[in-house]
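[#protein-structures] MJ: dropping Receptor-like kinase here for a structure pass
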Amino acid sequence: VWRSGVRQLEKFNLALLGIWCWRMLVDRDGLWFRVLAARSGVGE
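AK: finished. structure tokens for Receptor-like kinase:
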């Protein structure tokens, strides 16, 4: 029974990651983009 819960959690996490990726592509002035760009060295 708990396996179906884990699978649903995996789907939820994947969907959330997709939303964050989309948001980073669309909103380059947003806080998340600036934080992740600074951490990963993008734009140096």
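MJ: nice. The chain has a mean pLDDT of 85.
AK: one more thing. Residues 25 and 33 are 8 Å apart (CA to CA).
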